[in-house]
Amino acid sequence: MGLRKGKYDASIGHGYVFKRRNGRLVALVFGFVDDFKIHASTRKDCVVALNAFMDLMIRLGLICQPVKTSPPAQQQKHCGYIYDTRRSPTLRIPPNKTSRCIASAKFLLTRKRDHHLSRLSLAVVTGVLQSVVSATPQHCGQTHLRSLYDDLHRMEEVGHLE
Questions:
Q1: pTM for this entry
Q2: Alpha-carbon distance 69 to 59, whole Å?
Q3: Are 31 and 48 in contact (CB under 8 A)?
Q4: Which of 87, 104, 111, 139 could cysteine-pair with 125, CB 3.0–4.6 Å?
Q5: Poorest-confidence range of 23-32, 45-54, 65-74?
């Protein structure tokens, strides 16, 4: 394979960065808590990296659930979002998450204003909406949620929350 060790790069993480003789990175592994993503220049490089990663997990005594492990593809789910690199790299919200956000918003909008809402139901709705903020351009979804939070605090002062 002709691998050589590159210099340590703190922006990628600990350890070494392995490069081919032509300078192309072999693979990058991203991890967040228990969610890992492997990115490589080619499918072959990705398969090699995935096999090495799975071997490491076995040596560490960690089990990777088959239903939560995906083969190399240009569309992968990672941390609740779909990373699509078929054309220009794009971050997408899965359809089931989008429909859950719409249903949650409709639940709030169809209720009469004078009916009481439980704090738990509002926490669930705002949590669902908050979960998609990072997929909005420059996190602009946070701006819309801020006005929702302001409304909720006003409702609490008036006594519309149980």
A1: 0.60
A2: 17
A3: no
A4: 104
A5: 23-32
